[in-house]
Amino acid sequence: MLPVADLGLLPEGVAEHHGGTTVCADTPWASACRTPNTVSDFAVVVADYADRLWGAGVRPGAVVALVKANHFDIQAIQCALVRIGALPALLSVKMEPADLLHCLKELDRPCLLTDADGAAVLRPWQDQLGEIVSRVLTLTPEAVLPGAVELSESAPHQVTRHLGTDPMLITHSSGTTGKPKLLVHTVDSLYAHVAPQIGVVKSLDYAGISAKCLSFVHVRMSSGLLTLLNTGVPFLGISSPDLAPVRAALLRYRPESLEAQPNMFLRWEALARETPNPFSAVERYISSFDAMHPRTLRTLLEASERPNPTFIQAYGQTETGPVTLLMTTRADVREPGRLDSRDVGAAFPGMEIRVVDDAGAEVAADASGYIEVRTPARAESMIGRPPLPGRDAWWPMRDVGRLRPDGHLELYDRQVDQVPGVPSTLRAEDILLDELPELGEVVVIAVAGAVTAVAVTADGKPIDDDRWQRARSRAELPEDTGVDYRPWEDFPLTGTMKVRRHRLVTPGTPG
Known about the structure:
Layout: H1 10-18, E1 23-25, H2 39-55, E2 63-68, H3 73-83, E3 87-92, H4 97-106, E4 111-114, H5 116-122, H6 126-132, E5 135-138, E6 149-150, E7 167-172, E8 182-186, H7 187-203, E9 210-213, H8 219-231, E10 235-237, H9 243-253, E11 257-260, H10 262-267, E12 284-287, H11 294-303, E13 310-317, E14 321-329, H12 330-333, E15 343-347, E16 352-356, E17 368-374, E18 381-382, E19 395-403, E20 408-414, H13 425-435, E21 439-447, E22 450-457, H14 465-474, E23 482-485
Parallel strand pairs: 1-10, 2-3, 2-4, 4-5, 5-6, 9-10, 9-11, 11-12, 12-13, 22-23
Antiparallel strand pairs: 7-8, 8-18, 13-14, 14-15, 15-20, 16-17, 17-19, 19-20, 21-22
Helix pairs in contact: 1-2, 2-3, 7-8, 13-14
């Protein structure tokens, strides 16, 4: 029987059953012993990383912070660390340096494993590293930091098997509303992430490649890897969300399934108008971070040349894993009224949702309030924080929404991002994007008590005022709502490309 949720053992076990299944990345594996193209190759790379980590003195119980360029090799290194009994802490190289240093300090002198990109981010603080980390290991010789040792010498490693309650992985929240939180996942909690995903995949008729362009340090990718290995779905990891590499990867591999973060899909709308069409072979799109803008749903579903393409959305957090599931078809987005919905679907079996008021009392059916969930997939603990309540306790998602009579959840706002006088900033943004196709992004915030839409346009030019006012009125924004036009590069983003709204408070300046 395969070890369903043990990241250290699963690659080797799966290689014995369907080792020829495609597992690859769109860019080179800079530090791997070979370029994997199959599950068998991936298992060999995991074992080689394990030998080199063992040769460098990494032993069971060690906490190893991984800070490197975004690439699918992060998942192989993670598996290798778990395999030898170490505890990987996956940190985004896109994190703001102050937040990255904060996370390293929270880990209490971990071993740091990095590459050239990670070293470049940390180099301005290299004099502090000796006090923050126990040692520095590098994956490539270009990663120059004081006292760094390249991961090159090999020694046969010893395999560690994990029990269900053993910590297996540390990941971090996105930091959308503040400093990222470090979350510890056990075998059991990660399995609870994976179980519903395995069920969904097995219910679908997968044949072609499943491509994912994600932050590969996110727990979503770890659970995604477990799902792919357990179901035997061919896989492609796309490293960069930029238009050129995404276009090249999609045209080369023609994936049947494509998963990305919502703001990636938003930016990829431009690709849907190209010839040749990069999305022509996509039968299902997948996103599991935030609700998707309906314009993006419609654009990508219309771009597919498959007869019945589907957009699969899940709502959840790093702390909880996916909680709800919604499948949207091309026919759905053509229905009148569908474009105004913030529907994120119904709860997975075994997971519960409720909506409460300020006092924590459940609100009347169909009323809005604060979303809480109860799920066996909730993280075990947070580094540097008090013990978390048991998994039978209700968990606050810090989001505002309503639970409809049909069991579907509608998402309105993050609690901290609510704007006085605006029922739902997210719904308002949906309408603005649909009414004004030239908008590349728009974020509604409160600045000094006034409602402001921070916007970027495709051509960099402001929108005609009459058209803006008509769209603003339909979005139910106040008449005096201001517009602050900025280039896309000035939007402060997390590693998962969420906009850090609290950093957009000063009009006309970067966050």
